[in-house]
Design a protein that fits this description.
Number of helices: 1
Radius of gyration: 16 Å
CATH architecture: Sandwich
Helix content: under 10%
Strand order of the largest sheet: 1-6-15-8-9-10-11
Largest sheet: 7 strands, antiparallel
Number of domains: 1
Distance between the termini: 48 Å
Shape: globular
Length: 213
């Protein structure tokens, strides 16, 4: 009971702090959380560190439809066409440890653009997941140097686009797609996950948001 009470208190504190203190002035608030992190720290107006607990993931298996939805996310509501980017840095320990940019409409319609330890050898690459009831998991050969990469999501009309960059200036488009559900419910944000591991800490810096896609 004490552990459960502490967990509830942590959730309430985290959600309240994110909603009441939008210190990330690079993004439009107010903010909301899905699945509170172990800890999060805003280290500046455009930087945030998220610590995810063990066995945290956001995925619906294409093999048996098993859903896992416990990866911590901090979300905001974008308006109209937009671009949202961040420099993502992590030191992976477990396979599929990752930091990601996320899109969320509802439990069946969402997407994430991950910098991930996809093979389990500690070498990070871009992995893309688009979920329309079931997750479509797409691996790329776009790799990180020094455990760091810039990722970007853009929306133009009904279409979303995923990009990656080594320097935050020269971008490579990796995918375009649409999502179902009500687009008026769209939230975008940041997440950390450690599906097989004991947890991961992800740093998001140089966070940028603009209404020009």
């Amino acid at each position: 009971m004490l552990i459960r009470s502490a967990a509830i208190a942590l959730f309430a504190l985290t959600a309240s702090a994110v909603a009441a203190e939008p210190v990330l002035t690079a993004l439009p608030g107010p903010f909301e959380t899905r699945n509170p992190p172990v800890v999060w720290t805003a280290t500046g107006p455009d930087s945030l560190t998220i610590a995810a607990g063990p066995k945290t993931n956001w995925f619906v298996s294409p093999w048996d439809s098993t859903a896992v939805d416990n990866a911590p996310m901090i979300l905001f509501r974008p308006k109209g066409d937009f671009s949202f980017s961040a420099k993502i840095t992590l030191q992976p320990r477990g396979r599929w440890d990752s930091g990601a940019l996320a899109l969320f409409i509802d439990k069946d319609n969402w997407a994430k653009l991950c910098l991930e330890n996809s093979v389990g050898d500690g070498k990070l690459s871009v992995v893309m997941v688009v979920n329309r009831v079931i997750s479509d998991d797409s691996y790329t050969a776009f790799t990180a140097s020094d455990n760091t990469l810039y990722l970007r999501i853009s929306r133009q009309g009904p279409a979303y686009m995923f990009f990656a960059s080594h320097d935050g200036e020269n971008w490579t488009m990796l995918r375009d797609f649409t999502l179902g559900g009500d687009p008026a419910l769209l939230r975008a944000g940041l997440l950390a996950q450690s599906p097989l591991g004991d947890g991961i800490t992800v740093t998001f810096s140089y966070i940028r948001y603009t209404t020009k896609p």
